[in-house]
Amino acid sequence: MTKLLGQIAAAVLLLFSYGIGWTAEPTEPVAESLEALKKEVLSINRELFILEEDLLFPSSTQVAFYVSLDLGYFFKLDSIKLKVDGEWITQYLYTARELDALKRGGVQRLHVDNLQAGEHEVVAVVIGYGPENREYKLAVSNKFEKDTEAKLLELKIVDDDTKQQPKLTIKEWN
Fold it and tell me: Which domain of life is it from (predicted)?
C-alpha cells in the first residue's frame, strides 16, 4: 500500500512539474521574461509613487521646501529645523555624504506639506560649524502667499565672501 502511494505521489509530481514546464535548468526565455517582469514592476512602482504624491499633496495645497548649499567654505551644515506658522514641522541631521552632495550642487527636498491658500510664515534655523570650528546658528524668517498653485521654496545657504560668513536666504520658485 505504501509503495503504491509512493508511486502515485511520484506520478503526480511528475505530471505537475511537466504541466507547469518546470525544468532543472532555467532557459533563456524564462530569464528574459523575468527581467521584463522586473522592469514592469519597477515602472508600476514609480507610477504608483507619483500617483500617491498627487493624491497626498495636490497642487492646490502643496508647499515644498528644498535646501541648497553654495560651496560651504565658511559654514559646515550640521542640522536644519523648519517652522511654518509657528509650528515646527521638520528637522534634519546631515551626514558627510549628504553634505558632499549638496556642495557639488545637489538640492535636497526637505519637506512637503499641505497649506491652505493665504499668507504663511516660514522660519528656518540651521546649525553648523563656522570658521575655527565654532558652533554657528543662522535663522531666517519669510512670509509668503500661498495661492491655488503649488508653492516651492528654497532655503539657500551661501558664502558671503565680503564678510567671510555664511548667509541664509529663502527663495520662492515660480
Answer: Bacteria
Q: What is the pLDDT of residues 104-135, one digit of tens each?
A: 899 999 999 888 889 999 999 999 988 778 88
The candidate with the shortest Cα–Cα distance to 76, out of 102, 108, 105, 110, is 102
Domains and CATH numbers, the chain: 2-56 (no CATH), 62-173 (2.60.40)
Nearest to 156 by CA among 115, 112, 105: 105
Rounded to whole angstroms, what are the CA distances from 96 to 70, 111, 114?
Answer: 16, 20, 30
Instruction: Kindly report whether the global pTM for this prediction surpasses the value 0.70.
Output: no
Query: How many CA atoms does the CB half-sphere of 3 hold within 13 Å?
Result: 0
| C-alpha cell, 52 | 500617491
- 171, 83 in Cβ contact below 8 A? no
